[in-house]
Specification:
- The protein has 247 residues and is mostly beta strands.
- The chain folds into four domains: 29-94, no CATH class; 118-160, no CATH class; 161-191, no CATH class; 198-247.
- The chain is 9% helix and 33% strand.
- It has helices spanning 34-39, 85-92, 136-142, and strands spanning 20-25, 28-33, 47-49, 59-61, 68-72, 79-83, 97-102, 105-109, 118-121, 131-134, 149-152, 157-160, 169-172, 182-185, 201-202, 216-219, 224-229, 232-237.
- Strands 15-16-17-18 form a four-stranded mixed β-sheet, with no helix packed on it. A two-stranded antiparallel ribbon has the order 1-2.
- The longest helix is centred in the middle third of the chain and has 8 residues, at 85-92.
- The protein is rod-shaped, with a radius of gyration of 54 Å.
- The termini are far apart.
Length: 247
């Protein structure tokens, strides 16, 4: 007799998978279990699911790593992947060089110069590599040739040496290369000018205690010049002309 499926009694307990069911295979009615029907045909395609689904052996589910986050809005909602942390901060940072300023945060930075002598071109690197250059006196110093003392005119530097006047002033190491410049009278110096030379002036009480030969001074107490030959003093009053000879 023919019995409809809807007329069959309800299963008295939960299905285990071992239950027998009739199937037609190659034109012949045969038996199979519920488990055999569930596992056949097997899934060979791969696909993505929102969550890990153990009942779908070929499925893959979304996962995240450092810098990427996920938002699941639920059924019929949006499933969103987004950047977070440092990666997200990078997206909103300004143009130019980037510095990590804290955990998960970056900020745009610009190379800049402080004070005179240094300049920066393209400090944020947007148009090309930043270029640092010296300027002004520092640039002049970097390109200065030679050795010695340096002179500044306010905008440029140039080498110089301290020089003396022949038969008047002698200078040793005038450019400072071999040591400190030393300035002294020339041997047998000839003093310039036409007016005269002022010798030391002093009172009688200020005479040298142990004079040396060749010393000369003007005594303001006596209004006279004093010359010394060793310990011997020769006094020349201003109203007298004294002629000395080797004899």
């Amino acid at each position: 007799m023919n019995v409809r499926i809807s007329q069959l009694p309800v299963a008295p307990s939960a299905i285990t998978g071992a239950e027998l069911v009739p199937i037609v295979q190659n034109g012949e009615t045969v038996q199979a279990t519920v488990n055999q029907l569930v596992s056949s045909p097997s899934q060979t395609q791969t696909f993505l699911t929102v969550n890990n689904e153990p009942t779908l052996p070929n499925s893959r589910y979304f996962g995240v790593g450092v810098g990427i986050g996920i938002t699941d809005s639920g059924a019929q909602g949006k499933y969103s992947l987004f950047l977070n942390g440092t990666s997200g901060s990078l997206e909103t940072a300004g143009y130019g060089l980037i510095a990590k300023t804290a955990a998960g945060t970056v900020a745009a930075r610009v190379l800049s110069a402080s004070g005179a002598g240094l300049s920066v071109t393209n400090g944020n690197g947007v148009s090309g590599n930043p270029t640092l250059a010296v300027t002004g006196l520092l640039y002049s110093l970097a390109n200065l040739g030679g050795t010695g003392l340096i002179f500044s005119n306010g905008s440029a530097l140039s080498p110089l040496s301290i020089a003396g006047t022949t038969n008047q002033i002698s200078v040793a190491s005038g450019n400072g290369v071999s040591g400190n410049p030393t300035i002294s009278f020339a041997n047998d110096a000839v003093f310039p000018g036409t007016g005269g030379i002022t010798v030391p002036n002093g009172t009688t009480s200020q005479r040298p205690i142990a004079p040396n030969a060749g010393q000369i001074r003007y005594n303001t107490t006596l209004s006279a010049f004093e010359f010394y030959e060793g310990q011997r003093m020769i006094l020349m009053e201003t109203s007298i002309t004294l002629h000395l000879s080797k004899d």
